[in-house]
Amino acid sequence: MTLSISRYAAALAGVAVLVLAAPALAHPTVDVVAANWKFTPNTIEMHVGETTVLHITSSGGVHGIQSDDLGIPQTTIAPGKFVDVSVTPKKAGTYVIHCSIPCGQGHGDMTLTVEVKA
Ligand SMILES: [Cu+2]
Fold first, then answer.
1. According to the model, what pLDDT value does residue 47 have?
2. Contact predicate 59/84, CB 8 Å
3. Ligand 1 mean position to 88 CA, how many Å?
4. Which of 12, 32, 67, 85 is a Cys-bridge partner for 56, taking CB atoms 3.0 to 4.6 Å apart?
């Protein structure tokens, strides 16, 4: 009993150290992988006024994202390359981003949904 409590305390202390050690300017990062013909994950949650970095690559095919509403410039996603896009949503809502580069058969249904919470 005593042992498990002290292990728990040690685990908590470890978490606290990790949080304190994080650089003050680090933003939450979400990995996104584009492929033929989907984004994984295909739904991402963000918060109004908070910057999230999308760390994006493609595992197959050239794709793209772009959103005027979310302030995302036209961004090409190519296989084997990583691109970081910082997004700071201004308004709550559900934003459906369509793949911005014609990529074949499933292009029309290739979407990334961003749920922005207040
Ligand atoms: Cu496409």
1. 97
2. no
3. 24
4. 32
CATH architecture of structural domain 26-117 = Sandwich (2.60)
Q: What is the mean pLDDT of residues 32-54?
A: 98
8 A C-beta contact, residue 97 and residue 65: yes
**CA 67 – ligand 1 centroid, Å:** 14
CA 112 to ligand 1 centroid distance, Å: 11
Question: Which residues have their alpha-adjacent CB atom under 5 A from ion ligand 1?
Answer: 99, 103, 107
Report the C-alpha gap between 11 and 17 in whole angstroms. Answer: 10
Which of 4, 6, 63 is closest to 35 using CA atoms?
Answer: 63
pTM of the full predicted structure?
0.78
pLDDT at 26: 84
Q: Where are the domains of the chain?
A: 26-117
Mean pLDDT over 85-101 rounds to 98
Query: pLDDT grade, residue 21 (50/70/90)?
Result: low
